[in-house]
Amino acid sequence: MEKYLFLSTSHDGFGSITAAFIPIRIICNNTLNAALRNRSNSIKIRHTQNAKEHLEEAHKVMGIVNRLSNELGAILNRWSKVRITDEKLKQLIQLAMVPNKEVLTNIKSGNLDELSTAFKNVFDNVYGYTQSAPSQQTATAKGTVFGAYNALTGYFQNVRIYKNEKAKLKSLLFGGTGQLRTQKAFQLCEDFAMKGDSIFLN
Prior knowledge:
The chain is mainly α. The protein contains 8 helices and 3 strands, in the order ββαβααααααα. A 3-stranded antiparallel beta sheet has the order 1-2-3, sandwiched between helices. Strand 1 and strand 2 form a beta hairpin. It starts with a strand and ends in a 7-residue tail after the last helix.
């Protein structure tokens, strides 16, 4: 995906300076409006005496974001070329979704009948997402490590039911279950991409 840096200022000293990465190249008012709707990460800096310092800091932050975005893109592209069998996909999902040591012990010892109904339901929902979500049927996702990761993150973003949007945000971004499980999934996917089936032997 192409990324463009969008900068905006009011030139009157009252509006904020806005900087954002956007997926659209602005060539007219229509693409400007589309870009403003589609900006995902933006920084607003008020016109104050410290605006220059804030702009310099924003420049550093956006540089870091851009670098990390490129690195993540390279990892996900690599994962899209690493095949994973359905059996190993199921194991990876189980390990990524483990809520506690007891469940982990039951999984590793093969005592799947001892797993709670709640855990089995979560597993079924994640695995079901791998089989039915349109994003999972693409050549880069179906049967790949990228697809496994995409399904795990997709479950938390698109399937799991939250009390409200605030609860969803907390789960995904502020140290909640969604963030913890997707971080675990990321590490498992990277381990599988590097070491293969051997990650399931421990």
